[in-house]
Design brief:
By secondary structure, the chain is an all-alpha fold. It has five helices and no strands. Helix 1 packs antiparallel against helix 4 (about 50-90) and helix 3 crosses helix 4 (about 50-90). The longest helix has about 40 residues, at about 50-90. Residues about 25-35 have low confidence and may be disordered.
Length: about 110
């Protein structure tokens, strides 16, 4: 497989994976945030956590959210760099055809 074909295949695979990841439930499309797990208050009640444990979990969850946000940003930057490299490799006609090959995202 030549380099152009390998890049094109990788780009398509990344686009499909990104599209699948980006899909939201109907509730999210209606402006409602989907909950990602139990709240600290709920955990504290159900697990009989001490205040110290609850505070520690809150810090841990906030750190995790920050890491996930950084990963999403890095993923977007990597995707943008890859798209720029693809556009430097393909001709204008090939690039237009490539863009048409990407799956259409549903309106939110």
């Amino acid at each position: 497989m030549n380099i152009k074909a390998a890049l094109l295949t990788s780009a398509i695979a990344l686009t499909v994976a990104t599209s699948a990841y980006a899909e939201r439930s109907d509730d999210c499309s209606k402006g409602k945030m989907q909950k990602r797990g139990p709240s600290i208050t709920h955990l504290q009640e159900k697990l009989d956590l001490t205040d110290k444990q609850a505070d520690s979990l809150k810090v841990l969850f906030e750190e995790q959210r920050a890491k996930q946000k950084a990963l999403r940003k890095a993923h977007k930057e990597n995707r943008d760099i890859m798209h720029e490299k693809i556009s430097n490799i393909l001709t204008k006609e090939q690039l237009e055809e490539f863009k048409e090959m990407k799956p259409k995202k549903p309106h939110r």
